[in-house]
## 1
Amino acid sequence: MSGTAGRNIAAALSWCAAAALVLPLGGLARLAAQSPADGIEVVQIRPDFYVIGGAGGNILMQVGAEGVVLVDSGSTQAADRVLAAIRRLTPRPIRYIINTTMDADHVGGNETLARAGLSILAGAVAAGAGLGDDLITNAGGASILAHENVLARMSAPTGQQAPFPPGLRPTKTFAYRMYSMYLNGEGIQVIHQPAAHTDGDTVVFFRRGDVIATGDIIDTTRFPVIDLQRGGTIQGEIDALNRLMDLSIHNLPLQWREERTLLVPGHGHVYDKLDLLEYRDAVTVVRDRILDLVTQGRTLAEVKAANPTLGYRSQYGADSGPWTTDMFVETIYSELAAKRRQK
Ligand SMILES: [Zn+2]
């Protein structure tokens, strides 16, 4: 369920490009001078922000005086091409990779990109700043930051086969609700969204740039993937979408201006608050319809027959691939039916 089908990658690519051309983002929405010949496409969404597509999950890149901050790292296969794309944009070192989730197409480039990077504090420690922080990890490479549940799900108890090799795992984790830092003149808040797509999801809010990387809380190519095996829930997903609504601002009252919060999803094209509103409403309405039927004691077959995704199927539905509309409905049903049995 964590993978992205080829057609979704293709959709992400074309939609990323289309979003920059079609969304009225004014002079800031310039397509960077990048050749898509290697399958990697780069879209500049703000002066210091780029979306790198075609490498699995979307990668958000922020660049400033102190270096490069990446949100997610794409797939392992694409890592060298992603690094080349970053190098075409800036010679500055990669300082941080922030992982929004533990899916292979979001963390797969961690090792390659972290090794190509440089720890932000190594120089300060060498200069005798007296810092002994655990940020100095990863053999001087870039830090890989994620919620601790990401590390837990990527590891395994001693003696068991871990789902991910050590080089891909986070080097710095946090257990509480939010991790904050200031880099490149940006307040950056990494905010945990418990039990949404998985139990390790974070959204990454760049306060000055007003850009939010949402990870797979938003997947504009389909209904959100609720990964039950790794702690995802529909209620947590809806909570996370509402949290994103709270963090986002639209261009009101001066509607002729371009200012607005930009949301970079795990897959697909860049959203603004109105797009998010539609997505949040679609997910919530489908959940409410299924809840009504579950409350009436309907079976899964009856729920499916009642077509609870009516009106949203053409936009977010999928009949094939790793995450179909049926799977979305089944997942919501099983969670709500289990809750009902507990009552
Ligand atoms: Zn994803």
Note: The radius of gyration is 20 Å.
## 2
Amino acid sequence: MTWSVADIPDLHGRVAVVTGANGGLGLETARALVRAGAHVLMAARDAAKATGAEADLRSTVPDASVEVVALDLASLASVRQAADDILAAHSTVDILVNNAGLMGIPQRTTEDGFEMQFGVNHLGHFALTAHLLPALLRAEAARVVTVTSTAHHMGRAMDPRNPHLAGRYGPWRAYGQSKLANYHFALGLQDRFAAAGTRAASLLAHPGLSNTELQATSVAETGGGRSQQFFHSLASRVGMTPADGALPQLRAATDPAAQGGQMYAPRFVNSGPPVRRPILRRLGLADAIDRLWEVSERETGVVLDVGAALAALEA
Ligand SMILES: NC(=O)c1ccc[n+]([C@@H]2O[C@H](COP(=O)([O-])OP(=O)(O)OC[C@H]3O[C@@H](n4cnc5c(N)ncnc54)[C@H](OP(=O)(O)O)[C@@H]3O)[C@@H](O)[C@H]2O)c1
């Protein structure tokens, strides 16, 4: 049986936050969640693009329950503000899809001085998830889905002494490192949810090769980089549609049979229906996760401690 959006259960009464919801996979994830009845917060950086995306979504789902939240993952202040806005309006968050991302761009830094791909793809999501913990833990059984990539296979575990790749930067090295960080983050978060005895779950998804703006942005940012052009051309010729590419993260977020610590991805690696895939690279996994946690807390100044957040809620 092939899983499709028709398998998404009724989500009325659920609150979902999707980062990077103003385009690509994020917009299609938001659209499918809204269609199933969820109230969706479209967290996005570019306000004009977000307004257009919201109008697009409403044109296909006229009774959509949706709102836009300003979120720039390249700014810890913006991440804090977005979380505060969400927490002020919603006591629970049932689904958080850590989807936004950048790929293969030249060396740049975030507002806080982080290497941009590590900063946006991982550190921003780390801080956002930490800030939203109270609402996630108040939900009956929240799901956090973090979007990685097959590129995590080429990623080297982050060096705690040089997480921002000073003197060692390469656009693909940085992307691989950030997507491996996504991988370790999701698995580490699941360990922490389980250790605290919560019903919240953390899952992974990767979309295979999808024809979104990811590749075009990397071509534009690098002024026509060769490898970036190769992936752009490949994605436009054989990539899945954004709606199909979003299916693994939708399945991870909503399939009642999916469980924490699992990963969903296209059956044929880069395309095909969303299926559960094994978690590989287990050697040294626990150490890599611990290192990532230490560095993420050190760099962001944000502590992600599920047990402490739970105790604070119960106090
Ligand atoms: N497409 C693929 O083949 C593929 C393959 C593997 C993994 N992925 C992953 O899938 C995820 C979604 O990518 P996509 O393919 O949908 O690409 P996309 O169309 O380029 O969308 C990326 C989204 O991330 C947002 N974003 C970028 N920087 C941000 C920031 N600083 N703060 C907040 N949002 C920011 C973008 O917003 P703006 O437009 O406002 O910048 C956009 O909404 C990414 O994590 C990517 O690594 C994609």
Note: Residues 20, 22-26, 44-46, 49, 71-74, 99-103, 120, 147, 149, 206-207, 209-210, 212-214, 217, 235, 239, 245 surround NAP (CB under 6 Å).
